[in-house]
Every structure is written in structure tokens, then in C-alpha cells.
Specification:
Helix content is about 35%, strand content about 15%. The protein has about 250 residues and is an alpha/beta fold. It has a single domain, classed as NAD(P)-binding Rossmann-like Domain (Rossmann fold). The chain has an 8-stranded mixed beta sheet, with helices on both faces. Strand 2, helix 2 and strand 3 form a beta-alpha-beta unit. It binds NADP nicotinamide-adenine-dinucleotide phosphate. The site of NADP nicotinamide-adenine-dinucleotide phosphate has 25 residues, from helix 1. NADP nicotinamide-adenine-dinucleotide phosphate binds next to helix 1.
Length: about 250
């Protein structure tokens, strides 16, 4: 299957960045949020031809591939029926201060994407795009073969679904590194070596709040190769989920 239409459930920072990359790559996108499609008029106008807004159910049904990119606390509201039979990309991360405490994650019994897979029992869920900040996601995409192309980890239980997601990453401007199953997906979660920091230049010290904001938006990303992604994911040590208190929230 070749992805022609990307459905997006959630059109915030990550959803908008992915929609922009998809339209720039010649795909159609259907964006949605928790409110009415009209509230996405500005985003759709900015994306141009190839973009439209719909309800989450419509975005789910329209997508050859669908991205679930909402706060994890709302994962049980993802439209399971409309997503049945689909490959669903999960970008979500667990941040207890935003998402509330989820006991099975705190106990390390499961990963957040396993929870999502359990809810979407008739979908094939692949974790991707969760370990890069939205600004670098938008600006670090490069065509295949570019020397400064970055790779991103992907994890999932279904090899064919992972291949499909890797093809999408390739089209959008990223290499993919298979880091294992959904049970292994903690290796790219917050507070692991491959999470966010490698793609981001070191922040100069002593910046004011305004300067930090400008630096965040303007600073180019750091390319991270497939070999580096593999090495960083291999180095990960499992800690209690949601313990990344000293990292900025993404
Ligand atoms: N920001 C980053 O750099 C980054 C990086 C990697 C991963 N992530 C993860 O990716 C996910 C999305 O992050 P974000 O920063 O893009 O969040 P965000 O900017 O807060 O956007 C969240 C989006 O989800 C929508 N939404 C919330 N509940 C929904 C529901 N039940 N049904 C449909 N849409 C719903 C919101 O719609 P409304 O506006 O209508 O509420 C909004 O469009 C999070 O889990 C986050 O941890 C973020």
C-alpha cells in the first residue's frame, strides 16, 4: 500500500508539523482535533491544497495511514471502530503532570503504546515521531540520500505495519530504525538517550526567556544517523515511566 492520504487525530504542534511535511511531500492530509473541523480553518488554509479538516472519525476513515497525536490522557477517546483495520502511528508520550498517573506505566508493567494498542485492538499500532521536538521534526526533514538526513526510531508488533511506516518516514524526509516491539518502545520514551536531545543543538547558557524561545524556534536541528539512533536506543536503561521530571515536556 502506498500512503496517499494521511489522517491526523490531533493537529497541535506535532500534528501540524506532520501535516506540513506530508503536504510538502505531495500527500493529502485530513486533520482533526477535539473540537469542530471549522476550528482548523487557519491550519488548513496555511497547508493549502491537499489539506482538509474533519472529525476524528472521518480523519480515521479517510487515512491510508493515521497518526494519533493527542495528549496520552485522552488515548481511550481515539475512535477504535473507525480505526479498525488501519495502521495507526502513535506519537504520544507519558507526562504525568499533564496526563495524570497511569498505574500500569508507573509500575513499568507496560508501555504507553501497548495501552494504545490494547484500546485499538483491531488496528496495528506503530510508535514513531515521539522522540523529536515538533520544531526539529518540521525543519530536519531531508530527501533520501542527503548527507544530513536524520533517522527516527520506530517500534511495533507487526513487521508489515512497521515497513509501511518506514516508507512514510522516507517520503516525509526521515530514515527509520526498527527498535523492536511495542514492549520495547520504552527505549525511545522520555528520559532515554535517543529522546529529543540528540536532534537539538546545545542551548547556550544565560539566555533570557525571550531568547530561549527564539533559540528554540530558529536553531537548526542536529542530524542523527541511523547508526546513532540504534546505538542510543541500545544504551537505554529502563526507569519508572513518567520520571523525566528534569526534561522539558514534549
Ligand atoms: N510537542 C512536541 O514537541 C512533541 C514531541 C514528541 C511527541 N509529542 C507527543 O505527541 C502528542 C501530541 O503533542 P502536541 O505537542 O502536538 O500536543 P498539542 O499541541 O497539545 O496538540 C494536541 C492536539 O490533540 C487534540 N486532541 C486532544 N484530545 C483529542 C481527542 N480526544 N480527539 C481528537 N483530538 C484531540 C487537540 O485538539 P484541541 O485543540 O481541539 O484540544 C490538539 O489538536 C503528545 O502525546 C505529546 O506528548 C510531542
Amino acid at each position: 500500500m502506498t500512503t496517499r492520504t494521511l489522517g491526523l487525530i490531533g493537529s497541535g504542534m506535532i500534528g501540524s508539523a506532520l501535516a506540513g511535511l506530508a503536504v510538502a511531500s505531495g500527500l493529502n492530509v485530513v486533520v482533526s482535533n477535539s473540537r469542530a473541523p471549522e476550528t482548523l480553518a487557519e491550519l488548513v488554509a496555511g497547508l493549502g491544497d491537499g489539506a482538509r479538516a474533519a472529525t476524528p472519525e472521518e480523519a480515521a476513515r479517510s487515512g491510508d495511514l493515521v497518526v494519533a497525536t493527542i495528549p496520552l490522557k485522552n488515548y481511550a477517546r481515539l475512535p477504535a471502530e473507525a480505526l479498525a483495520g488501519k495502521i495507526v502511528i502513535d506519537t504520544m508520550n507519558y507526562y504525568p503532570e499533564r496526563d495524570g498517573r497511569l498505574a500500569s506505566l508507573d509500575a513499568g508493567e507496560t508501555t504507553s503504546t501497548e495501552l494504545v494498542q490494547r484500546h485499538l485492538a483491531d488496528s496495528r499500532v506503530v510508535k514513531a515521531f515521539n522522540n523529536i521536538d515538533f520544531r526539529r521534526l518540521a525543519t530536519s526533514a531531508r530527501p533520501a540520500g542527503a548527507a544530513d538526513r536524520s533517522a527516527l526510531p520506530i517500534a511495533g508488533d507487526d513487521p508489515a505495519a512497521k515497513e509501511e511506516v518506514a516508507r512514510l518516514l522516507d517520503v516525509l524526509g526521515y530514515g527509520a530504525v526498527d527498535i523492536g516491539t511495542l514492549a520495547d518502545s520504552w527505549r525511545s520514551e522520555p528520559d532515554t538517550p535517543v529522546y529529543v536531545q540528540p536532534y537539538l543543538a546545545e542551548r547556550p547558557e544565560g539566555l533570557s526567556q525571550d531568547e530561549t524561545h527564539r533559540w528554540f524556534f530558529e536553531t537548526p536541528g542536529v542530524p542523527v544517523s541511523a547508526a546513532q539512533v540504534k546505538e542510543l536506543a541500545d544504551q537505554a536503561v529502563r526507569r519508572p515511566a513518567g520520571s523525566a521530571a528534569n526534561l522539558s515536556r514534549d
